[in-house]
Amino acid sequence: MGDREYQICTNCVMDTSDPQITFDEHGRCDFCNNYYNSILPSWHTGEQGWKELTTIAERIKATTKGKKYNCLIALSGGTDSSYLTYIVKEKLGLNPLLLAVDTGWNLKVADSNVENLVKKLRLDLETITVDWEEMKDLQIAFFKSAVPYQDTPQDTAIFSALYNYAASHGFKYVMTGGNHSTECVKPPQEWTYYNDIKLLKDIHKKYGTIPLKNFPLCGMFKYRIFYRYFKGIQVVKPLNYVDYKKEEATKLLEKEFGWETYANKHFEDRFTRFYEGWWLPNKFGYDKRRCYDSSLILTGQMTREEALRDLEQQPYDKAIAMEDKKYICEHLGISEEQMDDFFALPNKTFRDYRNSFTMINKAIKLAMVLGIEKRNFRT
Ligand SMILES: [Zn+2]
C-alpha cells in the first residue's frame, strides 16, 4: 500500500487499500463518481427497464424459434445467478439451459440450492467438470506466483467454459447475473486482475508442472471480438433491468425454492471463502467486502454506518478459516507448512509477469467510448 496516507471515501467504504483510488475535493472516491456519472444516468429499472427487458426477451424468442433452448446461463448457486434463472424462466418465459462448472471445490453442483431450483423450474442442467489435475497444478502455480488474485484459475475456468460451450453449441444468447445493484463497485484491478491468458500462461510456465491440455481458456480477444462479432453471441444482463435488491431476492428464493443463504457474496465455494475471507485480507490487506458493501451503499441497500460496522468484524471465523485451510491443503495435496511458505512469499502483482494489460486496457477504453463498458476504469 506504499507510503500513501490512509484515506477512506466519505460516501462509500472504499479506501486506500486500493492503491489507485482517487478522491475529489469532497473526499468522494472515483468509484462513487463513476457510479453517479456513468452508471446511474443510463440505468433504468422499474417500468422502463421491464419494457426494455421484455423487448429483448421477445427478440430472443423470435430468433431462437424452433430451438430447444433460448439461451445459456451459468448457474453458480449464488443469489445473483439463481435469481437470474428465476426471472428468465418464470417472468420472461424463456427456456434456458443451465450450465454448472465443477472446478473441484464447489459443492455447487450437488448443492441443494441448485438442485431445488433446477427441479422446481423444470430446467435442464449441464455440468462441465474441469480436469482436476490441471486445476490443481494451476492453483499451486498461482500460490507460488504470489499475485493477489488466487481465484484466477477458478474464474478463468468458469468464464471460459461458459463462452466456449456457447460458441461450440450454437448459443446466440448468454445470460449472466452481472448487475449494478450488487456490483457497481467492482473490485480494484490491483486486487483481482484476471482474464489475461498471457499472464496465466506465464505463471503456469514458471511454476506449473504438467501441461494444460484440457483446461478451458477463453481470452479477451476471443470473448470480445471473435465470439461476439463472428459467432454472434450476445451477453444479456437481465438483473440490470429489474429492481434487483439482494435481500428481497434472497427472501423470494427462500420462500419459493427452500433457499439457504450464504454468509457472503461468493462464499458458496470453499476455496473462495478461504481466499477472500482470509488469504487476501491477511496477506495483502485487501478486503473484498469493501466493494460489496460499497455497491450496496450506492444502491441504497445498506448504510455507510452499517458497512463500517460490518468491516469491523472478521470476514469469517478464524477456527473455520483454519479448518478450510486444512481441507484445501489436503485437496491440493500439499502440506500446511507448504501453504505457510506460500503465504510468507513476498507479495507480487500481475505486473511482475508477462501480461496483456496494455492491450486489454486499450480494448476496455474503446468499449467505454462506445458506451459498452461502464466500469470504473483508470488509464
Ligand atoms: Zn466512494
Write the topology of this structure.
Blueprint: H1 30-39, H2 46-63, E1 71-74, H3 79-91, E2 96-102, H4 112-120, E3 124-129, H5 132-145, H6 152-168, E4 173-175, H7 180-183, H8 189-192, H9 197-207, H10 220-230, E5 234-236, H11 246-257, H12 270-284, H13 289-298, H14 304-312, H15 318-332, H16 336-344, H17 357-369
Parallel strand pairs: 1-2, 1-4, 2-3, 4-5
Helix pairs in contact: 3-11, 5-9, 12-15
Bound molecules: zinc ion (ZN).
Summarize the structure.
The chain is α/β, with parallel strands linked by helices and 379 residues long. 51% of the residues lie in helices and 6% in strands. It has helices at 30-39, 46-63, 79-91, 112-120, 132-145, 152-168, 180-183, 189-192, 197-207, 220-230, 246-257, 270-284, 289-298, 304-312, 318-332, 336-344, 357-369, and strands spanning 71-74, 96-102, 124-129, 173-175, 234-236.
Structural write-up:
By secondary structure, the chain is of the alpha/beta class. It is 51% helix and 6% strand. It is built from 17 helices and 5 strands. It has a 5-stranded parallel β-sheet with strand order 3-2-1-4-5, sandwiched between helices. Helix 5 (132-145) crosses helix 9 (197-207). The radius of gyration is 20 Å and the shape is globular. The mean pLDDT is 91. The protein binds zinc ion. The site of zinc ion has 8 residues, from helix 1. Zinc ion (ZN) binds next to helix 1.
